Amino acid sequence: MTKLDCLVINCAYNENKMCKRENITVGGHEARKPSETACRSFSPRGTNTLNSITLGGPEKETNIACDAVTCRYNHEKKCTADAIVVAGMHAVTNAETECGTFQSK
């Protein structure tokens, strides 16, 4: 599992920069820079989507599926980075988030 620091304070899953989801998905299939990626698991605070997701306590380590096949840390659609940062502090949609650790191959 990868250590995750989530800076997206408007995400319903974020608690003290940790994620309450068991896993997240980073999108950005043809990304060449971090701004072309996004946390597809983002859900704005106050939405009802939490009812269908299994939540635990906030965890520092999270399973990360990665669709950014151009990222050097993507191995068979899994993130192999030791740690990532999801950025987009005031995001209200997942398009306003990004994987700040993304590095193009």
Structure characterization notes:
The protein has 105 residues and is an all-beta fold. The protein has one domain (2-99). It is built from no helices and 11 strands. A 6-stranded mixed sheet has the order 5-4-7-1-10-11, with no helix packed on it. A 3-stranded antiparallel sheet has the order 2-3-6, with no helix packed on it. Strands 8-9 form a two-stranded antiparallel ribbon. A hairpin with a 2-residue loop joins strand 2 and strand 3 (18-21).
Structural descriptors:
single chain; 105 residues; mainly beta; three-stranded antiparallel beta sheet; 11 strands; 0% helix
Spatial extent as radius of gyration: 12 Å
- Fraction of residues in helix: under 10%
The total strand number stands at 11
Q: What class do helices, strands and sheet pairing give?
A: mainly beta
Global shape: globular
**Distance between termini?**
21 Å
Strand content: 35-45%
Unreliable stretches: none
Task: Give the integer mean of the pLDDT values.
Answer: 90
Largest sheet geometry: 6 strands, mixed
Order of helices and strands: EEEEEEEEEEE
Q: Identify the strand order in the major beta sheet.
A: 5-4-7-1-10-11
Provide a count of the helices.
0
Oligomer: single chain
Number of domains: 1
Topology summary:
Blueprint: E1 2-6, E2 14-15, E3 18-21, E4 23-27, E5 38-39, E6 55-59, E7 61-66, E8 74-75, E9 78-79, E10 83-87, E11 98-99
Parallel strand pairs: 1-10, 4-7
Antiparallel strand pairs: 1-7, 2-3, 3-6, 4-5, 8-9, 10-11
